[in-house]
Model the fold of this input.
Amino acid sequence: MKTKPKVAVIGSGYWGKNLVRNFRELGALQLICDKNEHTLSLFKDQYPEVDVCMAYSDVLNRDDIQGVVIATPAETHYFLAKEAILAGKNVYVEKPLVLDEKEGEELITLAKKHNRVLMVGHLLQYHPAFIRLKELVKGGELGRINYIYSNRLNLGKIRREENVFWSFAPHDISMILTLAGEFPDKVSATGGCYLHQTIADVTTTHLEFSSGLKAHIFVSWLHPFKEQKLVVVGDKKMAVFDDMKPWKEKLLVYSHEIHWDGNIPVPVKAKADCIEIIQSEPLKNECQHFLDVVSGNVVPLTNGDEGLSVLKVLSAASLSGSENKAVRLGNL
Done:
């Protein structure tokens, strides 16, 4: 029987601490690397069996570490992932993959050359409700998909190293691209900077696809309440994935119909059907998936190529917002 891969988590702060907890519960956490000595001291008291270090080189020199889990600021992802791959490690990097498309392409090529895993942390791909929604869409339950919209709104966490779109929207882009099954032709975005002159706090982004499908993403960290909602409208049924609802209500399907009275469309509303899903923590599912991939049991669901597709949409939206015009993806 194969032994479980051992991982090191790089960056154990705001989000990294959740990765630390999950990999530890899965019996795979060997090492925590962080620049904050006090943070490491607290983890050492909590998990005395886990090693800690402050130098990244100490991680890369360890033969007992098969996977490196990167949860540091986005601008560090490229260097840390590249060094890990060159050191023979498999890599899980939190979203976004990197900030530059060429760097993303280089990491993908490098991982393939060295036969190493490159996986991106697009968390909602591992959410039971989204997995079930994806099955409904792929199975034709909703019919032809006409449009998709996503709201990811909250008051904070406000960042200074990236705008709200780069911070919040990668999850939504990942889900929309998966459900669409195609890459958008055109992206247009607008935003508002209210707390800082050059960092957007609110953005609205529109995606247009060659099939006729349209999608939009609204993100804000200046919102009076928290909302995380994805709506998928098909010509047969409509589905709502609302992550703020209790588990039994997270995924609803509406069998609304449009009847025609002469040339006048008349909506006929139906009650929502609660879709049964198996409750489980998405992040733990994602962490287990990485371990399974490293063990050679499965192919990564959110690999480097998927991360690069999301990055291209992020870049196009940024260009659109800065130049105040629509951007065709073929021109990037």
About this structure: The mean pLDDT is 94. The first helix runs from residue 16 to 25. Residues 190 and 322 are 8 Å apart (CA to CA).
